[in-house]
Write a structure and sequence with these properties.
Strand content: 25-35%
Shape: globular
Protein name: Cyanophycinase
Radius of gyration: 21 Å
Number of helices: 12
Oligomer: single chain
Pfam families: Peptidase_S51
EC number: 3.4.15.6
Helix content: 10-25%
Number of strands: 22
Keywords: Carboxypeptidase, Hydrolase, Protease, Serine protease, Signal
Largest sheet: 10 strands, mixed
CATH architecture of the largest domain: 3-Layer(aba) Sandwich
CATH class of the largest domain: Alpha Beta
Organism: Kitasatospora paranensis
CATH superfamily of the largest domain: Class I glutamine amidotransferase (GATase) domain
């Protein structure tokens, strides 16, 4: 198994000393303590951003100055370079850094940007990340978009690889964000905004069974992470992407527990968190898009390792959808205007679920399986708890969803839960 060498990192006790990483209800993160001024906006998409998502593209342009004024710098260094793309010569099928950069630049212009330009950096042109000419190009932009691919290529090209120091271009983008610019990204382009312990890969079942390890692995099922993280734009918790379509809630919970993190924002596809005043005490989040964002709160979670396997309980789970807001400082969610409190009026039991993490090995699996069970539970009067299991066995893991006195759900149609807060989650071998 190939592994990218990483500097050793201390365990949970040492992590507790890093106030910018560990968030508690009683303490304000050190990263926020001295940042009273306003800052820019992050718009981070869980991947699968549709070409016609005018809400998200439009908001990026609005935050960058509006139609006819926004100037978007597009970074696609997470893509392979042209030399590694067998379809580089075909504009219809190419998928490399230059091709993808041109694609997104054209798309932003279609949505009303005054200008959009590819920032010509990739893993074969890392010197450009320290080019004064490219820095000048960056400084002429009012907003930025990071495309998808492999987030470690952003580490290689913009963070000087193992040195993990800002290139001149990244330093310029960081300064632009602090001065009020918008920084956006999708999939790997969102993931790279993470602080310490950025996830590098893994599937939920293998994560629950085997735990996590620092590094970057050829085995795509193994839960890996980079202790030094990504660009550290988002400090309020871990990030994960493609959540509902690849069943990543389990791996997000395991990684947070293993690394001592207290919170995860797990983003569904075609859905974003908009983080205004990023990194300051005024930081606030709003959900945009067609699906949702899982907020996993591990402040009171407890883990155990026994012969039968690993388990965790008392994870608080919220699922927020379009327009909902969240305050990371107070850990409080507010529903969007137009959503009303759901009064559970159905006695229909929660449907059985034997593939809670939508296993790649199950051809009959259902995406958004985890959030689907949670939403069904909040809409019924028939039961206070619901259970779901993994498709895989030896061991099978069971997820228990429980309504508490703090659980709330909101609806747009009067019958189904659009959003919910404060379910508790337990996961254990079954």
């Amino acid at each position: 198994m190939h592994r990218i060498p990483l500097s050793p990192r201390a365990g949970r006790a040492a992590l507790a000393l890093t106030a910018a990483v560990i968030l508690t209800a009683a303490a304000v993160p050190a990263a926020w303590a001295h940042t009273e001024q306003d800052s820019g906006t992050l718009i981070l998409v869980g991947g699968g951003l549709k070409d016609n998502n005018s809400e998200i593209y439009g908001e990026i342009i609005t935050k960058a100055g509006g139609e006819g004024h926004a100037r978007i710098g597009v970074l696609t260094a997470a893509s392979v370079p042209e030399s590694q793309d067998p379809n580089a010569g075909d504009p219809a099928t190419c998928s490399n850094s230059a091709c993808n950069g041109a694609y997104y630049a054209d798309l932003f212009k279609q949505f009303g940007a005054a200008d959009a330009q590819w920032i010509p950096i990739d893993i074969e042109h890392v010197d450009a990340a320290d080019s004064d000419a490219v820095v000048a190009q960056v400084n002429s932009m009012t907003g930025f978009f990071f495309g998808g691919g492999d987030q470690y290529r952003y580490v290689t090209s913009l963070l000087h690889g193992a040195a993990h120091t800002d290139s001149k271009v990244l330093a310029a983008i960081r300064a632009k964000l602090a001065a009020g610019a918008v920084v956006s990204g999708s999939s790997a382009g969102a993931q790279i905004a993470s602080g310490p312990d950025m996830v590098t890969g893994g599937d939920s079942y293998q994560a629950l069974r085997d735990g996590s390890a620092p590094g970057y692995f050829d085995d795509a099922t193994k839960l890996g992470y980079l202790p030094d993280g990504g660009f550290d734009f988002l400090r309020a918790g871990l990030l994960d992407t493609h959540t509902g379509t690849t069943g990543r809630e389990g791996r997000a919970i395991r990684l947070a527990a293993d690394t001592g993190q207290d919170r995860v924002f797990a983003l569904d596809e075609d859905t974003a968190i908009e983080v205004e005043n990023a990194g300051t005490r005024r930081e606030s989040l709003r959900v945009l898009g067609s699906h949702g964002v899982s907020v996993l709160d591990l402040r009171n979670a407890r883990t155990r390792q026994r012969d039968a396997g690993w388990s965790i309980d008392n994870v608080r789970y919220s699922y927020l959808t379009d327009g909902d807001r969240y305050n990371p400082l107070t850990w409080h969610a507010e529903p969007a205007t137009g959503k009303t409190v759901l009064r559970a009026d159905s006695a229909t039991p929660v449907p059985s679920n034997n593939d809670v993490f939508y296993s790649v090995d199950n051809p009959e699996g259902t995406p958004y399986s985890f959030s689907g069970t949670a939403r069904a539970l909040t809409a019924t009067t028939a039961q206070r708890t619901a259970t779901a299991t993994t498709y895989e066995s030896a061991p099978t893991f069971q997820v228990t969803f429980t309504k508490t006195g703090a659980t709330r759900a909101w609806t747009t149609d009067g019958h189904t839960a659009a959003s919910l807060t404060e379910l508790t989650i337990a996961i254990a071998p079954h």
